[in-house]
Amino acid sequence: MLRDYQQRTIDQLYAWFFAGNAGNPCLVLPTGSGKSHIVAALCKDALQNWPETRVLMLTHVKELIEQNAEKMRLHWPAAPMGIYSAGIGKRDIGEPITFAGIQSVRTKAEMLGHLDLVIIDECHLVNHKEEGGYRKLLADLKAINPALRVVGLTATPYRLGHGLITDKPALFDALLEPVSIEELVFKGYLSTLRSKVTSAKLDTSGVKKRGGEFIESELQAAVDTDDNNQRVVQEVIALAGDRKAWLVFCTGVQHAEHVAEVLRRHGVTAQCVTGETPKAERKRMLDDFKAGKLRALTNANVLTTGFDYPDIDLIAMLRPTMSASLYVQMAGRGMRVKSHTDHCLVLDFAGVVEMHGPIVAVQPPKKGGDGDGEAPVKVCDNCDELVHISAKECPACGHPFPEPEEKKLKLRNDDIMGMEGKDFEVTGWSWRRHISKASGNLMLACTYYGSLSDKPITEYFPVLNDGYAGQMALQKLMAIAEKSGADLAEIRILKDTEALDYIVIQMGKSKHPNAIEYRMDGKFFKVVRRTWDETCGA
Predict the structure, then answer these.
(1) 300: which DSSP letter?
(2) What is the rounded CA–CA span in Å between residue 508 and residue 99?
(3) pLDDT band with cut points at 50, 70 and 90 for residue 149
(4) For residue 387, what pLDDT band results from cuts at 50, 70 and 90?
(5) What DSSP element (H or E) covers 429?
(6) Is the pLDDT of residue 328 over 50?
(7) Looking at the predicted structure, is the pLDDT value of residue 344 above 50?
(8) Is the pLDDT of residue 409 over 60?
(9) For the residues of 375-398, what is the DSSP string, one character each?
(10) How does pLDDT run across 416-453, given as a tens digit for each residue?
(11) Are 425 and 437 within 8 A, CB to CB?
(12) Which of 66, 94, 402, 475 is the most exposed place for a label (fewest CB within 10 A)?
């Protein structure tokens, strides 16, 4: 039986296809939302309604292949499915549903033959350019069946140096976001995270970047020092209390090994898992960790996806990263519902929470340039020479430039969730058309009214905007309409201004929420929850 939002996901996907949209959609689903259950239900529905359908389910690690295949068997014990993965030791071929690893099938399009649907888990790993294993396989499959459709799944729909995975050039054309982290936490499907500001800080000044990310060798050299490791481990132990399952993210193999060694010297049962750990030994370590025989696991780039242990109650981030995706994946390991506590403590020694923000409001990375723009420059105050922006002194006269002011970010405890808000009892609401002063764009505005002493709260819905912002606003609006009883069935056949007027009329006749919870998002209000009765609304 699917959860309500899981069925909503499939319904929205079908609605997107049936609306006549060309291209490939991506389902954005938070870590822990049960993507494998959604995939299983989608495959079953597709084959039972269209028996000739052939589906390929792709991912990059064998653990995810096994998880997805297991859920398929749960939903449909008699499913006509096979697994093609060298890592698992299976090479089934010819079944209507195939679960496969990209490394095993990237050159085997001819063997796979005619496919109707390819589903890609962790699809943010697909190159936005037409290169790499995924893109080669998809191009070869498309040559066999030009009508092939691709559906992506990810919790992080962006790529470092590129921006959103729908930014051109791109494989994906639309982001569908049927459920939020806030909804999953409120309904009890995810636990919360709590973050603490740590005394020990890992300094990355002087560490160079390549492709927008820190160069691993330089990062590890800067972070992996005896002094850093001692201070970090001592603080972890001091803040951990009676927490029983610690997961530590490190910058590289040697760093992970060194931190595990320091933990053991302080009496903590700890082991290190890396990509070089033999399979049997890795399985033993993970089993011991889940059984409570190990209190801590350190790792380097291997336990961000495909590893789920709900009772992880402490995450230590010792891995500075410019990648918002990696940050969300690390934090997501602590969000499963636990048997013994209602939260996971996140100790951010690497400054990634400050850099990327709360996980409910992570900003997609900026799209990288194409290399054709002018180099950024500044002017020497002493001789008016134009010099590169990074110069510390003028090459013409030797005049030193002042050190750039550091951006001061203040992070309070618990800020990693970004869900702390203020309650507001609603006595009425008002919908209207609104023109943005900043952009001049036409949009919707909804003002919530409370008692006479309460200042009204207004939120904005840029439903006419192209791209991500418009998609998000429209999805939120439709969810609110469903809870309030508004009939917006005709919205898609109306022109822009007609649609806004229609929405204003319909929402004005609908039932307002009894209460909202809101917080400040810059200079605007962000409504994080609306309640119509005893259950959470949109």
Answers:
(1) S
(2) 48
(3) very high
(4) low
(5) strand 428-435
(6) yes
(7) yes
(8) no
(9) PPEEE-TTT--EEETT-SB-TTT-
(10) 887 666 889 999 999 999 998 878 889 999 999 988 76
(11) no
(12) 402
Q: In Å, what is the CA distance from 59 to each residue of 5, 414, 475?
A: 23, 33, 27
Cis preceding-peptide flag for 51 (omega within 30 of 0): no
Query: Look-up: residue for tokens 């996806």?
Result: 305
DSSP string, 109-178: HHHH---SEEEEETGGGS-SSS-SHHHHHHHHHHHH-TT-EEEEEES--EETTTEETTSSS-S--EEE--
The predicted structure's pLDDT at residue 385: 62
Contacts 24+ apart (CB under 8 A), 365-368: 365/158, 365/159, 365/160, 365/161, 365/162, 365/163, 365/212, 365/322, 365/323, 365/324, 366/163, 367/161, 367/162, 367/163, 367/167, 368/161, 368/162, 368/163, 368/212
Residue 379 gets the label, from left (phi > 0), alpha (psi -120 to 50) or beta, of beta
**CA distances in angstroms from 35 to 9, 64, 117, 148, 275, listed in the order given:** 10, 10, 17, 22, 25
What pLDDT is attached to residue 37?
93
φ, ψ for residue 408 (rounded to 5)?
Answer: -85, 115
Listed in sequence order, the DSSP H helices in 196-321 are: 216-223, 226-240, 253-265, 279-290
User: In this predicted structure, what is the pLDDT of residue 407?
Assistant: 40
Contact (CB, 8 A) for 194 and 345: yes
d(CA 122, CA 65): 11
pLDDT confidence band for 394 (50 / 70 / 90): confident
Backbone angles phi, psi at 266, to 5 degrees: -95, 15
Identify the band that residue 266 occupies on the pLDDT scale cut at 50, 70 and 90: very high
- What span, in angstroms and rounded, lies between the C-alpha atoms of 362 and 315? 19
Instruction: Give dist(CA 289, CA 291) in Å, integer.
Output: 5
